[in-house]
């Protein structure tokens, strides 16, 4: 009986598998700017997610008493039924962090209520952030209003601008003394400790064999 109900729900719900879809980006240690690549199916909620590539690493932000900015350039362009979401209204943007620590302060829900710009342009966005903290992934979710069923599921790329520039983001600014700073990807302190222990063992073994 449960299987029948689930099947009916799938048949009745319009495009149930395309309610939300995600562009992914990786983040390696030392990087300060990050770009989304690949393709996804267009949906009412489009997520731009960036996550660390390596276990034991994380994004690190410390505004050092200053006010930094989270900035993002978010584009969507496709082929076939959906060249771009031109004319669709973007209701809001949700910014969420995974495995967050610290005391980072910024607007996590931003009201946009704007029509997706014409041509191939996307949204260029920034919001202030203060504090110190870490996280392993960050997602920017765009919520579209009244998405036509004919466009749902179309293959799209995270591109923007007339020259098809890759969508990307970063977090940077200046500390309280006017010095520039950037969010970056770093190893956990425990990873540094394990590396030091490993080097110590190697050095001791080398001394014994000399």
Specify the helix fraction band: 10-25%
How large a portion of the residues is in β-strands, by DSSP E? over 45%
Low-confidence stretches: 2-16, 191-207
Summarize the main sheet.
6 strands, antiparallel
Alpha-carbon Rg, integer: 21 Å
Number of helix segments? 2
Shape: globular
Query: What structural category do the secondary elements indicate?
Result: alpha+beta
How many distinct beta strands? 20
N-to-C order of helices and strands: HEEEEEEEEEEEEEEEEEEEEH
Average pLDDT across residues? 84
Distance between the termini: 74 Å
What secondary-structure arrangement, pairings included, does this model have?
Layout: H1 2-12, E1 20-27, E2 34-35, E3 40-41, E4 45-52, E5 57-62, E6 68-74, E7 77-78, E8 89-98, E9 101-102, E10 105-106, E11 109-115, E12 123-130, E13 132-135, E14 137-145, E15 155-157, E16 159-160, E17 165-166, E18 168-174, E19 180-182, E20 184-187, H2 189-209
Parallel strand pairs: 1-4
Antiparallel strand pairs: 2-18, 3-15, 4-14, 5-13, 5-20, 6-12, 6-18, 7-15, 8-11, 8-14, 9-13, 10-12, 16-17, 18-19
Provide keyphrases for this structure:
single chain, 210 residues, alpha+beta, 6-stranded antiparallel β-sheet, 5-stranded mixed β-sheet, 2 helices, 20 strands, globular, disordered N terminus
